[in-house]
Structure formats: C-alpha cells, structure tokens
Amino acid sequence: MTLPESPASRGKILSWTLFDFANTAFYVLILTVGYPLYFKKIVAVGTDQGDALWGISFSISMLIVALISPILGAVADFGAGKKRFLGLFTGICIGATGSLFFVEGAMILQGMALLILANIGFEAGLVFYDAFLPEITTERSYGRVSGYGFAMGYVGSLVTLLIALPLYSEGFGHENLSNIRLSFLIAAGMFFLFALPLFLAVPDRQRSAALPPDFITIGIRRVLSTFREFSKYRNVGRFLLSYFLYIDAVNTIIVFSSIFADETLKLEVEEIIIFFAIVQTSAVVGSVLFGILADKLGHKRSLTISLLIWIVILVIAYFIENKMAFFGVGVLAGVALGSSQSSSRSLMSSLVPAEKKTEFFGFYSFFGKASAIIGPALFGLVSSNVNQRAALLAVGVLLVAGLLLLRRVESR
After folding, report:
1. Same domain for 237 and 178?
2. Torsion of CA 382, 64, 362, 392, to 10 degrees
3. Are 374 and 250 in contact (CB under 8 A)?
4. pLDDT (tens digit, 9 = 90+) per residue, 3-22?
5. Domains in the chain: how many in total?
6. Which of 103, 143, 95 is nearest to 121 (CA)?
7. Are 343 and 299 in contact (CB under 8 A)?
8. Whether 90 contacts 121, CB under 8 Å
9. What pTM, to 2 d.p., does this model score?
10. Are residues 160 and 273 in the same domain?
11. Cα(124)–Cα(218) distance, rounded to whole angstroms?
12. Nearest alpha-carbon partner for 21 in 142, 255, 184, 198
C-alpha cells in the first residue's frame, strides 16, 4: 500500500477531525434527539403511524446509501476526487437540514423527503471523509489519528447538546415549536462552519480530473471489476464480513439501550439522559486511548480487545438490576463504542490497496449500512417472544461470530 508522501501537519489533521465534530451536530439533533420527536409529535400529527413513517424514511435513506456507496467510491478513485464528492454530499445534507426549519404540522411528505435527502448526504459523505485517513498520516499512526477523529465527534455531540438544550427545555408545546425548529438551523450551521477547515486546509492527493458524462457507468464497471477480482482481496473480504456482523451488534445495542433502560430497568427520562452523557464522555476517552493502543499493539489486537469488552457488557447487562451499576456499564459501553469504531476504520485503512481505497471504503460503508437490518430485527423478535435480556444474548451471537471471523484477518 502506498503511504502518504509525508505525514500531514497537525493543523491539517485537526482540520480533518473537525469534520467529525461538524457532522455530529446533524447526528445528535436530526437523527437522535430533536427531529425524531418533532416528526412524531408535530409533523405526523393526526396519524398513529409516526414511528412507522420515521422508520421507513430512515430505511429508505440507508438503502440508497448502501447501494450507491461502492459506486461513488469507484468513481472517486477513477480520478474525480474525494473532496468534490464530499463537498456535494455535505452540501445536500446541510441544505436539507436547514430546510427542515420550514417543515410544520402535517407536512409529512416534505418532512420525510428532507430527512431522506439529509441522511443520504450525511452517510454518503462519510465514504469520502473516511478515505482521507490514509492520505493525512502514515500507516503506523492510523489508529491514533482515527481515534482523534471519533473523539472530536463525541466532543461535538456534547457541545451540540449543550447549545440546543435551552431550546428544548420548554418541550414540544406549540408555543415552543419555533425554538425546536431553530435547532435544525443550528445543526445545519454547525455542520457548515466546522466542515469548512477540511475543504480549505486538507489537500486531496488524487488528481481532480473532469467528471466524464458516463461516470455512473464507469463506477458500476469498476465495482463489478472489483467483485470479479475479489479473490485477490480475500483478506479485505474477511474483514468486511467480520465488520458486518460485529458492527450490526454494536449498533443494535446502542439503538435499543434507551428502550432497555426504560422498560427493563425502569429508569426515568432524566436518568436515561445522564446515561447517554456518560456514554458520550467515555467514548471520547475510548477513541483516543484505543487509537494510541492500536498504533502500539496493532489495529487488529486493539479491535479484538474492544469486541471482548462488548461481550462483557452484554453478559453484565443480562444480569443487571441496579441502576447505578447500569451507569457503570455506560462507562464501559462508551469506551467500547469509541474504540470499536476507531479501530475498525484504522484497520480498514491498513488493509485496502492504495489505488482502490475510496472504492473499498464504499464497500466498508455498504457493509456498515446494510448490517442495520439483521440486528434490530433479531433483537425485536427475541424480545417480543422471550424478553429483552434474552435479546441481548441473541445479539451477542453476532458479536462472537464477528470476533471469530476477525481472527482470520491478516494484519501487519
């Protein structure tokens, strides 16, 4: 694999990590806290299908991203340039997010369409953002720099919540809706402001050729060619399959953690918010600590340790009864979350061939997005027919399977 001509300066690395800070404003306010509740209580007013409509919108956006990510990566590797595509999708996300300000009660189709557009921009842009990692640092520092990026993202989520918290203090009553909608503008503004340093300071070392008119056909051809040649990249394939399984388990745990806390442990809303604050804070530590650890022990060993921590978390959660103990699990979960995401990206960077790095990060994104189907369905099925504790163990099977496949991945 071709290494960067020289490591990027600290300023350029900081500019790259600030993009993680920027996009978490969208993630926290649009996908996690603000817009989901606004959509259900205000946009989908008059229907009892708010949850279903929200889920359909999110699923459509993830399906589209899963399908187009490998093609977009192949096109960028052809020579169109990562920064060009990153700018395009970031602009789509920011524009659609800002437009949510104008979505009011009963504007269901508009609310769904803008969410789909915004999430496509957010998720597709990550393909090109992640692919900058091999260009801004040397292979021996992938883990550390990747960890800095995720840590900056978790800091961004905490800062965003602090800024938006006063706007949500009065709830979702009609007298406070203008404040809620203002938070959508804040998400768009923060994304725009803190994404700028990457575009201004971080060079794209690929040639920036003019985009050919048949660029989609070219992208499809390159993806099909990579599939035909996949026998040459079996090691990358083994990692992607392992990633598909364990990241599905990790995402499922995060998605259902608040439901588990509410229904099984009977935590109050304020206690759940405290729990997630603990997770986000410890995730900063996990990202940085395991980023440094990965560069010393190796990306694969670091990732293995983080997955073992996840397995321990599931076992503890199965038996847990005490609320304070659950907060302790939150600390472990944050460390494991930050470390597993950071170590996965750095290990992927060390495995992919230089001439196909963006294309393979497209597959990396595809496997990450496509995996969002199995885990939640498995958890829901087991939870409905047995209980949530048994569902945690079922998800643990995915973790163990991913860990066993990871053992077969060859790393340097």
Report:
1. no
2. -10
3. no
4. 444 556 778 888 889 999 99
5. 2
6. 95
7. yes
8. yes
9. 0.72
10. no
11. 18
12. 198
